[in-house]
Structures are given as structure tokens and as C-alpha cells.
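CHAIN AND CONFORMATION:

***
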Amino acid sequence: MKSSFIKNKTLVTTGAISALLLAGCSSEESNKEETKTAWDEIQEEGSLTVATSGTLLATSFRDEESDELTGFEVEVVRELGERLELDIEFKELGFDEMLTSVNTGQIDLAANDIEITEDRAEEFIFSTPIKYSYGTAVVRKDDLSGISSLEDLPGKKAAGACTSIYMEIAREYGAEEVTYDNASNEVYLRDVSIGRTDVILNDYYLSTFGVAAFPELNITIHPDIKYAPSEVGLVMNKDNKELAENVNKTLEAMLEDGTITEISEEFFGGADVSVKPDIEEN
């Protein structure tokens, strides 16, 4: 009788220990699920969701013949995805919407010639810079829109995105704002040409590409206006530090092996935008 009791007690104890061990394993698995990071989820899904405009020559636009999305940053991101062994899903959004989507976690990354600034760096993580440039002005070819310097902007109509760095500069100099909702480059440039607007303040390389794409328009790059040296990077959510670490490691390798230089030369007429330009502001 005593032997049977001991045997039964041993079975009960062993069962209890097994139950505890199973509970412990279950708890560990649950904790692993709870501590899964955004980078873990990206790797599990095998893809990165990337916001871009699809309307910005020469960094993000649709090829006229194939209608395929391409451009400097589009191709940089495609190469990035290949090296990270992740598929890239592009979503074409307006500038403000893409930043909001990164902030809310709906988008993993934004790539659209987004300048690195102190204010933005407080809200987002920026990658290693992949492009250096400076500001210029697109004006009418026949009279330079009556502009000789930024001090001539009061009373002039400046076209651009409402929250862009360049519209902020136009605003500071007293220009009248004319804003668009993710319009194409042709719309912006044609409006300057026909006098609906007077000037577009924008990045030098993007402006040069845009003007060259529409030779029939009465527009040119202002020969004397250079300002605001800039750095451009890919934009990520402030909390997604693991993604940023992997993106930066890969971009740095692409800079070192010349891949980004090759992509730049393809889209910017042989220019290497990964190198800081030597300019004197005026």
C-alpha cells in the first residue's frame, strides 16, 4: 500500500514538473513573439515596402516607353533589396503622405530625394547620405523671370511642394507660394515657361535633368544662383534601428564598391552625386 502511494505520488510529481516545463517553454515562445522586432517581421515577410513619388525626375519617375518605375533612388533601393535578399514593393505617394506613412509604420522606408535636416532627424532615422547637392533656380530662359538673386523673390510666384526645404526657402525670401499635389515635373516646368509661375527652387541635379527633358520649354537653370548645400538619405521610422543598421551597412558597401556612382552616372548625365560638390554660395 505504501509502495503504491509512493509510486502514485512520484507520477503526480513528475507530471507536475512536466507541466511546469511545458508551461515554461510556452512562456518562452510567447515572450519571443512579443519581443519580435520590425526587422524580424520584415525578414519573415521577405520584403520592404518603400514609398516614392514616381513623379520626380531623375530620382523617381516612370519611363516614357515602358512605363516602368525607375530613377536614381529607385535603382539604389532595388540594389539594396537584392543585397539584403528582400523583395521591394514600391508605393507611389505624395511627399507629405510618404513621411506620415513612415512615421506610422505603414511604410518601411521612403526614397524620394529627401534632404537630411536637423528637424527631420528628430522625427526619423536617415541612412548614410547617398547624394550631395545644392539648391538652384529654374527660371524663364528669355528674361530669367526678372530674378538675379534670391533677394528678388518677393512678389514672384514660386512653385513646389508645400513642406519641402526649397519651398521653405522661397517662403523665407518672400515669394508667393504655388503648391501642387504630387504633380509631374512637366506640369511644374511648363507653368514657369508660360508665366503661370516664375521660379522653381530645387536641387541642382534634379533641376538640370528636368530642364534637359523638356527642351521645347522656355526654361533654364539660373546661371548665378547657388545656395543651401544638401545631403540626401533614405528615411526610416525612428524605432526601426535594426533596419537602419542593415541598410547603412549595405549602402556603405555600395558606396565603397562604386555601385552608387554607376547608378548616379546613369541618371545624372555622368555626374557622381555621391561626392560633395565644391560650391560658393551666392
Q: What stands out?
A: The CA atoms of residues 9 and 15 lie 10 Å apart. The chain is about 45% helix and 20% strand. The first strand starts at residue 47 and ends at 52.
